Every structure is written in structure tokens, then in C-alpha cells.
Amino acid sequence: MPADGQTLGPEQLPVASSAELTSTAAGHRVTWRLEMPYFGALWRPLIARRARRIERAADRGEPLPRDRPWWAPPEHLGPEQQATIAIAALLTAIYSFGGGTLGLLSTTLPAAADIYGADDSTLAVGLAVVRGGVVVALLVGTLADRLGRRRVIVSAAIAHCVLVAAIGLAPGFGLYVGGHLLLRTIDTALAIALAVIVIERVPARSRATSLALLAVASGIGIGLATLALPLAESGRAGFALAYGAQLLAIPLVLSAARTLEESPRFIRHQSEPHAYRELLAAPYRRRLLMLGIATLLAAAFVAPALEFLTQYLTDGRGLSAGAAVLLLGLMGLAAGPGLIGGGILADSHGRRTVAIPAFIASLAAFVAFYLGSGILPWIAGPIAAAIGAAGGAAAGPYGGELFPTRIRSAAQTLILVLTIVGSVLGLGAIALLRDSLTLGEAIAANGLGAVVAIIIFIAYFPETAGRDLDETSIDSPAARP
Fold first, then answer.
1. SS3 letters for 134-198?
2. 27-33 vs 6-7, strand pairing mode
């Protein structure tokens, strides 16, 4: 029989705070608070349903439920940690709208071509230049290590909003591309700082889950950018308004800035040296090579596999535009649960336990998608998206877990640059293979690099789930320069 006025722990009512079970004339009642900003409405119905289950058990004199519901993080998140994740997710959605990989630049490209009179070749050159913004980001890659995660996040988020609005007013294509180049540099620094502060502030058993939530938030920003497409295509004024809409996020950024707290790990390590050269020396050189090569090879397959999805479905398989959009939508819907499920499972059961089978299965599914016919792509596509997202969520924390606080952002920047290099190499490989193979065959053949990446992962990647960052990054006085 539960005691009157019993305090409920996170194992009984996850995510909530100040939860208490009391007895009333009408039966038992659970009171609780939720201190998660911005996204609390998404959690309240789930917590309320759990609270009602506790009340029913108490009324019947049964033991209170202690099983972890599917929506609960593997390790309890306190109010400050919830606030960090919520703010990071909010800012991720904001920058993904204007500067994400599939944000306004991608969605409004046809409109930009009409406004600036750019042909396909000019657009291709412009996109290549913008992609190079990630390389330019090397210049600011250590700022979050030197100045602090919070300072970089707040400054970059405000600069992002202002710059996106200015890009919409660019009088010529050169300034339009130049603005996006600068924006890509700012957004790279912002994205890395957001991931790092989440990795450093959440419990060890919730890192993958928390980063997966940022990936879902990125999808929300991209979706909003897609909704802005009709406005951008309505003419020059509509194009400027689509970009100018980013200014509406500034009040949210300022609100988040007042709540966001600096990473305690950064404060403890801020007096240490912060330089790329430490990544090129023992003991971190081997880890950088391991992560960098595996990431490069994986990106060389994933980038073309995703970039050519629409073209393959319409030209290679002859699907109508409506059918192609439907299949792409099914794949997108499958990726969301894959991200969350992969993150939770990786935190609960281990990174390698989830990532290795997920990578193998998703690669096989993608190959079946590009080589199959009939109904097979409709089955293999969503499976590849869901399992691939789960594998990505499981492996996502490695870039932050394997390097110490003083160079964590620098390491993430270098790995991201290698990811872009891999994407470029993969797209170039498809261009060469297309001389003798169909598009589907070329992409499937490109999967050989992904096979090597999986072998590297199996052979060399350590298990880091549930381990303290000082342990996973071998951050000890003996390892410091």
C-alpha cells in the first residue's frame, strides 16, 4: 500500500519533477511539475497518462509501476539538463530552417535561379562554393573551446537570423552565394557548439537519445523551410520575405540565451590549451584517423544515396512525381522513430550493439532499394531510412565522447569537414561510374566504401555507453600537453 504524501522518483514518473502521490476523498492523486521549456506540451500528455496509471495502482493497493515507458530517457534528466536539451533543439530547428543542408538554400533554389537568372552550371558552382563553407569553418572550429559553448551558441544564433534575412535581399547571385558561404560557416560552429554542450551536460546514459532529439528538431526546421517554398516562388518580394521570416526567431533566441547555462566542463577546462595540433598527436591522432576515415567512407555512400533519391525514382524507376513524393515521405516518416529508437537503445544497450547490425542492415536495404524493382523499393526504402537513422543515432555521440573537453569542438569540426570531403568524393565517384553503370548500379557499387567503414567500426570503435566523458576521452593529466 503506497504511503500518503509519497514522493515519486524518476523511475515511477520520468521527466517530471516535484512529483508526489497523495490521498484524497475521491482517491489517490498525483501532482507533478514539468520544467522543460518550449517543448513541454509534447511531454505533458505522456506524463499525465503515466500519472493516471500510478493513481489507479494506488487506488487498488497495488505496487506502483516502475517500468520505464518508451518515451522516457534511459537516465533521468534534471530540470537544468532538460532545459539544455530543449534550448539546443529549439536553436537547431531555427538554424536548420535558414541554413541547414536541406533548408532555404535547397528548397528555394529554383526561385533563386529565376530571380538571379542563373543557369544549372552557375547553380552547381554556387552550391559547391557554399559547401566549402564547412572547410572555412576550420577557422572558427576552436572558438567554442576557447570562448565557451554558450557564448558561441548565442552569438552564432543571433548572427544566423540577421544574416539569413540579409541574404534574401542580396541584389546579385554572387552576394547571394557569398552570404550562404558565410552562413554555412556560422551554422557549422553553431551546430557543433550545440552538440557539444548537450554531450557535456546530459547524463552518460542519455547522450545518444539527446543528440537524436536534436536531429529530429533539424527535421522540423527543414519542414518549415519546405512550407516557405510557395512564398519564395511568388516573386522577388516573396523570396525576400521567406528569408526575412528568420527574424521572427530572434525573440526565441534571446529567450533561450537568458536560460542557457554554460557547460560546467568547459568552465573547469577553460584554462587549458585549445589547438588542432593536439588532435594530430598521440593519443588522439589514432582516434581522429579512425573516426575520420570511417565517417568519410560512410559519407561517400550516404551522400549520393540521398542526393539522387528523387532522380532515381523518377528517371531510373519511372515513378510519377506524386508516387515519388509519397515514397520519399514514407522514408522521412520512418527516419524519425528510427532516430529516437536508435538513441534510446544505444544508451540502454550499448553503441556497438545497436550500430553494427543497424549499419549492416541499412546498407543491405539501400542496395536492395537501388537494385530492386516492383514493390521492393517501397519496402526497402522505409526500412533503410529507419534502420540507418537508428545506426546514425547510436554512433552520433562518438565524436564528442572520444576527445577531451579542451578540444571537443575542434575534433567535431575536423570530423565534419571529413564528412563533407567524403560526400564530394562519393558524388564524384557516381559521375565516373555512370559511364558504364545505371544510376542505381553506380550507387550500389559505391557501397563498397561503406563496407570498409563498417569493418573499421567493428574492429576499432570502443563501447562508450554509460561511461563518464573523462573516461571515454582518456582526459587525464598524463594525456594533456
1. HHHHHHHCCHHHHCCHHHHHHHHHHHHHHHHHHHCCCCCHHHHHHHHHHHHHHHHHHHHHHHHHH
2. unpaired
CA nearest neighbour of 390 among 420, 430, 360, 370: 360
What is the model's pLDDT at position 479?
A: 42
Query: For the chain, which residues score pLDDT lower than 70?
Result: 1-4, 100-102, 120, 124, 133, 475-481
Determine phi and psi for 30, rounding to 5 degrees.
-105, 125
Q: What domains sit in the chain, N to C, each tagged with a CATH number?
A: 6-58 (no CATH), 77-271 (1.20.1250.20), 276-481 (1.20.1250.20)
CA distance 301 to 354: 20
Handedness of CA 39, 223, 186, 299 (dihedral sign): positive
Q: From CA 253, how far away is CA 153, in angstroms rounded?
A: 10
Q: How far apart are CA 45 and CA 31, in angstroms?
A: 14
Q: How far apart are the first and last CA of the chain?
A: 58
Q: What is the pTM of this model?
A: 0.88
Q: Which helix (H) or strand (E) holds 6?
A: strand 6-7
